[in-house]
Amino acid sequence: MFDLDKLVNDYLVPFGLKIVMAVVIWIIGGIVINLLARLVRSAMNRRHIDPTLVRYTESTMRIALRIALILSILSVCGIETTSFAALLAAAGIAIGAAWSGLLSNFASGIFLIVLRPFKSGDMISAGGVTGVVDEIGLFVTTLTTPDNLRVYVGNTKVFGDNITVYDANAFRRVDLTAQLAHTVDLQDAVARLKARVAQIPNVVEKPGVDVEILEFNPSGPVLAVRPYCHNRDYWQVYFDTNKAIAEVGGTAHWPVPATRQILMPPPGISGPAASGTSAVPPIVPGAGGTAPAGTLPNAPAP
C-alpha cells in the first residue's frame, strides 16, 4: 500500500530542505562574491593600478568564486563533489580540445595584462586593426577605430602579431611630399615651406620641420615635407600641411609641374623631314602634270 506520509517525511521534506538550503547559499554566496569583488576593485583603484588589470582581476576572481560556490551547493545537496570534480576535469579536457582557440585567447589576455605593451586609452595598430583601446578583456581586446566603429580582436591575434603603439612617444612625424617644376628655385621653396608649415597649429617646435630634396623625376624635383606633432593631432596637421603646400605654391606663383618631351631626329636626317614635316609640290590643274608618286595613294589615276 502506498504510504504518502513516508514519501513526504523520508524524501520530499529532506529534498525540499536541501533545495531551500541551496537557494539560500546561492543568494548569500552571490552577495559575498559581489562584496569581495568590490573590495578588491576599491583596493586596487586606491593604489592607482591600471584599470585593465583591475577589470581582469575582478572578472577572474568572480569566475573562480562562482565555481567554488557551485561545488559547495552540490555538496550540500548530497552530490559527491569528488566524482563531480573528476567529471568536470574530463569535461574540461574535452572542452579545452574543442575550444583551444578560446583558451589561447585567454592565455594571450593574461600575457597582455602582465607584460602590458599597451593600456586602455592608447591608440594602437594590432591584428590588422587601428584604433583606441577601450578594454583588454578575458578573450578579446576592444578597439574603437577612427571612423567610430567598435572592433573586437581576439587576444591571440593581438599578442601574436606586431603591435604598433602610437601614443608611446611624445610626438610622431607626418610624411608628405611636394612636387615642383624644374624652373622653381629650390632654396627659396625650401625656406618658404619651412616657415609656413612651422606656423601650423599643433606642430611641435623641436624637432623642427624637415623640408629636404627627396628625389628627381621627369616633372622636376620632389621635396619631402615632414612636420612633427602629437599623435592625437596627426590628421589635423596632415591636412593643414597639404593646404600650406598649396598656399605657398600659389603665393610664389610656382608653375605647374609637367613632363617635357623633346623629339630628336634620327641620325643622318636633315631638312624638313627632320622637323617632322615634308614638302609636297602642288598640283596645278590643266598643266598636264602628274601627281608625284605617293602624294595621293588612294586617288584614281588621271
Automatic annotation (TrEMBL):
Residues 102-164 form the Mechanosensitive ion channel MscS domain. Residues 270-281, 292-302 have a biased composition (Low complexity). SUPFAM superfamilies: Mechanosensitive channel protein MscS (YggB), C-terminal domain, Mechanosensitive channel protein MscS (YggB), transmembrane region, Sm-like ribonucleoproteins. Signal peptide: none annotated. GO terms for cellular component: plasma membrane. Keywords: Cell inner membrane, Cell membrane, Ion channel, Ion transport, Membrane, Transmembrane, Transmembrane helix, Transport. Gene3D superfamilies: 1.10.287.1260, 2.30.30.60, 3.30.70.100. Belongs to the MscS (TC 1.A.23) family. PANTHER family: SMALL-CONDUCTANCE MECHANOSENSITIVE CHANNEL. Mechanosensitive channel that participates in the regulation of osmotic pressure changes within the cell, opening in response to stretch forces in the membrane lipid bilayer, without the need for other proteins. Contributes to normal resistance to hypoosmotic shock. Forms an ion channel of 1.0 nanosiemens conductance with a slight preference for anions. This is Small-conductance mechanosensitive channel.
